[in-house]
Amino acid sequence: MLCSSKKQGMERLIVVCLCVSLLSIFALADPGAVGVNYGRIANDLPSAVKTVELLKSQGIDKVKIYDTDSAVLKALSGSNIKVIVSLPNENLTAAAKYPSFALSWVQKSIVPYYPLTQIHAIAVGNEVFVDPNNTTDVLVPAMKNVQSALVYYKLDSGIKISSPFALSALQSSFPASSGSFKTELIEPVIKPMFDFLRETKSYLMLNAYPFFAYSANADVISLDYALFRENPGVVDSGNGLKYTNLFDAQVDAIYAAIKALKYDDVDIVVTETGWPSNGDKEEIGANPENAQAYNGNLVKRVLTGGGTPLKAETKLVVYLFALYNENKKFGPTSERNYGLFYPSEEKVYEIPFTLEQVKTWKLKPASDRKAQSQAPTKPVYGGESAGSNGTSGVPSSSSAKGPFCVANVKSGKERLQKALDYACGEGGADCRSIQRGAACYDPNTLGAHATIAFNSYFQNKGRANSACYFGGAAYVVTVPPKLGKCDLTMDSEEDNGNKGAGKLFVQNNKENAEAVDVSLSSPRLVTLFGTGTFGISWVLLVLMYLSF
């Protein structure tokens, strides 16, 4: 009897310990917050009123929209859902040059709805550094004028101003502790912006997508590392911190870059992150199982408390991209399949949105985990056998002269412009060479600029035929067109060191040519936060760590 009693007492003690452990996870940790992006580039979405009902039914109390649509803001009135609204890139120049424009915009877009609609932040522009219309120089002046308008209407205490960065703003990113911003951006825009954020007690908005890093490097990045599943982790050689997921490493690379400029007091809100549930065959990892694992595990990681390894005491605030699948978005199939819900309001897959839901949520086992682990280990290049030159799937020099992706001018100005905006923005093409005053600005025609952008996107995507469509605005050719001083010829020798990369050559005179790298820089499609040798080093080090 005595032995039995002791045994039962020990069992009760174990149960109590387990309960205490669970409470420490769900109650004692400082939880972060989760919201969603409500994009509307589609023709089959529910009304704004029904969308707000959907948000409330799921316990989602934070939403970000990409404009200040009246119907949406009215529907959100009285809902207790906090809202981030946006001033689009096309309005930045006017907002920067004319304080009266900013004042009028706030008067019409904010004042009529606030505070019944709980607008708490304004995203001024989006990923401006890769905007094909070259709005970088007007970003901070636009932010300041919008802030002045808020002050005028006495709204500045309740509404913060910021602007979403993409990872392409980084010069260096591996290890995360060595993160640094591109030198050409620091003095003209980044420091003035951070001064503004500090002065107004605001924060930096960040768009981060581990999916693109994994999809472009599935042969060296562990899927478990990308999806917050159990894995050996990666140790930062700069500070000894251990990273068990790619998301934390991406965020900390930005934090390190901020710290390097001595703006440690500026925090980050992740305004976009997500994983597509479907994609083209070249988009490795785009499926419902991985999307559920990434988004569900991210929500669990955020809501159960704790920050990143570099900022452990700072809670995470994350906005998932996106609420719905959007059938009118440009780009590859994945762009139309980031939604958590179908337009019918049916869930694409099950994930939690609140801490209570996290406690009972279980990740649905992948229908074929073995099949996932046997995904192509090297990206497939159109018309090429992967790895034919012994460089891990990089196209061989025999094919380095093509094919190329060019603009279809017959598709019409409007379609071309939309496709160009997508390529230079979300698509990740390097459009610096077609900015005003840059090497390939001339010929200053929509067709020429679109061709350079489309081809950059095409090369980054491994020359897959599906990457040269843009809704009929582009097509593949084997002979590159002449574009003034620029041509699309690839440097076969130097190109072998970069996956899917190309060199755009600017002909200065008959004897000399200057190579402009258009290979790996992008807003979302950053292979491993960095480009060139930084990106390659990151890949090799990840492979080394994950092999142990």
UniProtKB/TrEMBL annotation:
Residues 365-400 are annotated as: Disordered. Keywords: Cell membrane, Disulfide bond, Glycoprotein, Glycosidase, GPI-anchor, Hydrolase, Lipoprotein, Membrane, Plant defense, Signal, Transmembrane, Transmembrane helix. GO terms for molecular function: glucan endo-1,3-beta-D-glucosidase activity. It is an enzyme of class 3 (hydrolase). PROSITE patterns: GLYCOSYL_HYDROL_F17 (PS00587). The chain crosses the membrane at residues 525-546. Residues 387-400 have a biased composition (Low complexity). The keyword Nucleotidyltransferase does not apply. It catalyses: Hydrolysis of (1->3)-beta-D-glucosidic linkages in (1->3)-beta-D-glucans. Its main location: membrane. Pfam families: Glyco_hydro_17, X8. It is found in: Cell membrane. One of its GO terms (cellular component) is plasma membrane. Belongs to the glycosyl hydrolase 17 family. This is glucan endo-1,3-beta-D-glucosidase. It comes from Papaver atlanticum.
